[in-house]
Amino acid sequence: MGCEAWGGRLDAYLDGELAPGEAAELGRHLRTCGACSADALDRVQLKRSVAAAGRRYQPSADLRARIARSAGAPRPRVRWPWPMLAVPALLLLIVSIASGLYLGRAQAGRERIYSEFADLHTAALASATPVDVVSSDRHTVKPWFQGKIPFSFDLPDLQASPFTLVGGRVAWFAQTPGAHLVFQLRKHMISVFIFRETAADATNLPSGAAHPLSFNMESWHQGGLRYVAIGDAGAGDIEALGRLLRAGRAP
Amino acid sequence: MEVRDSRPPGGRFEELALPLFDQLYNFARWLTRDASEAEDLVQETYAKALRGFPSFRAGTNFRAWIYRILRNSFLSSRTGLRTEVPFDEEDPDVASRATSSTPEELLVRSATREEVQQALEQLPVHSREVLLLCDVEEMSYQEIAETLSIPIGTVMSRLFRARQALRRLLQPRQPGGQRGV
Lengths: 251, 181
Prior knowledge:
The complex is a heterodimer of chains A (about 250) and B (about 180). Chain A is an alpha+beta fold and about 250 residues long. In chain A, about 45% of the residues lie in helices and about 20% in strands. Chain A folds into two domains: about 1-80, Arc Repressor Mutant, subunit A (Orthogonal Bundle); about 130-250, Phosphorylase Kinase, domain 1 (2-Layer Sandwich). Chain A has helices at about 5, 10-15, 20-30, 35-55, 60-70, 85-100, 105-125, 140-145, 235-250; strands at about 135, 165-175, 175-185, 190-195, 210, 215-220, 225-230. Chain B contains ten helices and no strands. The longest helix of chain B is centred in the C-terminal third of the chain and has 19 residues, at about 150-170.
């Protein structure tokens, strides 16, 4: 790609909106191209100027107190230092630790697997780049996994369905790489994890529906692979996506 | 540590909403350009958000949700109604047009904070807000799109145009040359 094409992506790059592969490529280009790196430097300067100039107004203590009262808090709270999306992930972690302590051993093992998938799902959505290959085209997403995971899988045509494919990334479960696909249904994000059935623990997972931590989850086994679909969409929706995926496999 | 159910809105609203108070006020002040209007706007936002919280879907982006409430309240306020509607032409290849700046367009010197603030004030509201959401609030394009209820492509073209306009406003005065937009 030439300087002209890269120039058009500099802002997206500096805003952290390029896919990691493309960002790395542009980063390499910047190290070798004086004109583009000067351009990038200038854009960074503009961004920083706006960031500094934009943090300008402080609310009055009086307004703070009024808002805190109306929002139902007894006193103003300390600002949380981490992004809001990290909070559900942390809650999940706490819940998974707590449930590990109180449940029976077998059940605890299963819960742990559920929680692990719930964590993988939440952590991905909380990340600035939830997917590494961004495409709604199954013919782009499937080949992307070639050489990254030790198996292949089929994706159904979602054209006529309410689901759209957002993209995919490699996920690790029990020290084994697998596919993590993200689907969107209206505002809901649904993760589908695909791992080899031989991956430790995956065999302990019963097929069927489950509701770990208020997520809806469905798991099934197909062609030596363990599929886990999880998300905050309705149980019926998750089941529908599962049906599509099962039907999508070529006979 | 106590683990609370995320459903009852009473407990969680303040935890989600209060940490955003300073930022929301700053943003409101930039939109309204007036201290007391900004206070009213923030109060209205929190009241509406608290009322609407039961319909907020857990797991979706709270920040974009409450910013959207603030911004919609602003647009229907007296000052907001005077806001000009942005001209978003179909602009699918902003990226290909946005080639590298020519040396004359580069900010040769660094502008002072006051100069940038003045330039931001001069920008139309729709340019100002998208810049603030991106560079000050550090929202992703997706979050900005949700906040402003516009497609991501429009976010990108508005950002592109806002940065161009800001650049022009920050251009050093040149003898005989024209300055600004």
